[in-house]
């Protein structure tokens, strides 16, 4: 597990350096949108984190649906067995709790971003004009 983590960190650093050198050489990708193929290479990390953060929310929502359906099917297939029905109830309540935590974390990230002028879920760009008096 540690090996995969270290390899992913090394790959990320390598791709960040590669994109910065491509930017310095004036290399762009015409297949990408105007702001993706060009721009500040220092913002590569922000785009990376923002993209994965948004993907994590999507995956969390899909896992909630999967867990809810799994608990519902287990409840239906329980056949009156109290242990299986209790297990299904726990799956459904844990799924709802997970969705609540997911929604609360989304709201908290958006609130912090609004107060600080940072778009945390998109590109981690800073809007310093909001901090001016």
Topology (elements, then pairings):
Elements: H1 2-24, H2 34-37, H3 44-77, H4 82-116, E1 118-119, E2 125-126
Antiparallel strand pairs: 1-2
Indicate the low-confidence ranges by residue numbers. Answer: none
What separation lies between the terminal Cα atoms? Answer: 48 Å
Q: Which sheet architecture does the biggest sheet show? A: 2 strands, antiparallel
Radius of gyration: 21 Å
**Element-level helix/strand string:** HHHHEE
How many strand units? 2
Secondary structure class reads mainly alpha
- What's the rounded overall pLDDT mean? 76
Strand order of the largest sheet: 1-2
User: How many helical stretches?
Assistant: 4
**Oligomeric state of this protein:** single chain
Helix content: over 70%
Apparent shape: elongated
* Total number of domains: 2
In terms of DSSP E residues, the strand content is under 5%
What this model shows, in words?
The longest helix is centred in the last third of the chain and has 35 residues, at 82-116. The protein has helices spanning 2-24, 34-37, 44-77, 82-116; strands spanning 118-119, 125-126. It folds into two domains: 1-39, no CATH class; 40-133. With 133 residues, the protein is mainly alpha-helical. The chain is 72% helix and 3% strand. Helix 3 packs antiparallel against helix 4 (82-116). The radius of gyration is 21 Å and the shape is elongated.
């Amino acid at each position: 597990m540690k090996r995969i983590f270290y390899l992913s960190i090394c790959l990320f650093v390598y791709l960040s350096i590669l994109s910065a050198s491509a930017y310095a050489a004036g290399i762009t990708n015409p297949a990408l949108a105007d702001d993706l193929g060009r721009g500040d290479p220092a913002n590569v990390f922000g785009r990376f984190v923002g993209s994965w953060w948004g993907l994590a929310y999507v995956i969390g929502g899909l896992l909630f649906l999967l867990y809810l359906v799994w608990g519902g099917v287990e409840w239906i297939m329980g056949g009156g067995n109290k242990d299986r029905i209790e297990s299904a109830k726990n799956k459904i309540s844990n799924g709802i709790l997970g969705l609540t935590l997911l929604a609360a974390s989304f709201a908290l990230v958006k609130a912090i971003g609004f107060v600080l002028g940072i778009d945390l879920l998109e590109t981690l760009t800073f809007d310093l004009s909001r901090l001016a008096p």
